[in-house]
């Protein structure tokens, strides 16, 4: 397997121009439809729908001249980066780590958090928030506060 992180890749002016066209074509493809690419004019290679979604996202960023970084979920991030992903303060994130809500490991005096664990916590918090909002909506309807 290759690197856990690729990039950042800064698009050139030519990349931006090409990405605009590619982004439009990828966006026009129906979700889950077959997409294939030709390499050097050879036989087409079918791409899985999940890869098409990733490519479409990359092309969209390139089309706006934005650098892209691709990382595996096993990639470890600093506490500051994890806090940025979760949109919380670093001290709050450290509390989450120390309380065991998000696993981490120490490298010397530094804490490292797997990106996968940060994303799992984020997903769990979004689901919890959604459930709480549903409960509040239901309660307000029962009380006649919202119709």
Task: Describe this entry's structure for a reader.
With 147 residues, the chain is α+β, with helices and mostly antiparallel strands. The strands form 3 sheets. A 3-stranded antiparallel beta sheet has the order 5-7-6. A two-stranded antiparallel ribbon has the order 1-4. It has a two-stranded antiparallel ribbon with strand order 2-3. The mean pLDDT is 88. It has 5 helices and 7 strands, in the order βαββαββααββα. The protein has 2 domains: 5-71, no CATH class; 76-142, Multidrug-efflux Transporter Regulator, Chain: A, Domain 2 (Orthogonal Bundle).
Query: Structural class per helix/strand content?
Result: alpha+beta
Secondary-structure element order, N to C: EHEEHEEHHEEH
Strand content: 15-25%
Largest sheet: 3 strands, antiparallel
Amount of helix: 40-55%
Oligomer: single chain
Mean pLDDT across the residues is 88
Total beta-strand segments: 7
Question: Can you tell me the number of structural domains?
Answer: 2
Uncertain runs: none
Strand order across the largest sheet: 5-7-6
Overall shape: extended
**Rg, alpha carbons:** 21 Å
Distance between the termini: 55 Å
The total of helices stands at 5
């Amino acid at each position: 397997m290759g690197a856990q992180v690729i990039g950042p890749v800064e698009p050139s002016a030519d990349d931006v121009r090409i990405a605009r066209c590619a982004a439009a074509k990828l966006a026009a493809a129906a979700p889950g439809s077959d997409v294939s690419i030709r390499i050097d004019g050879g036989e087409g290679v079918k791409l899985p729908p999940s890869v098409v979604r990733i490519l479409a996202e990359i092309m969209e960023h390139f089309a706006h001249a934005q650098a892209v970084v691709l990382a595996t979920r096993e990639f470890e991030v600093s506490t500051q980066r994890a806090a940025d992903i979760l949109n919380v303060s670093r001290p709050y994130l450290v509390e989450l780590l120390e309380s065991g809500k998000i696993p981490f490991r120490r490298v010397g005096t530094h804490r490292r958090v797997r990106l996968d664990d940060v994303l799992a916590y984020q997903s769990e918090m979004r689901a919890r928030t959604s459930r709480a909002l549903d409960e509040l909506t239901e309660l307000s309807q029962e009380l006649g506060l919202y119709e």
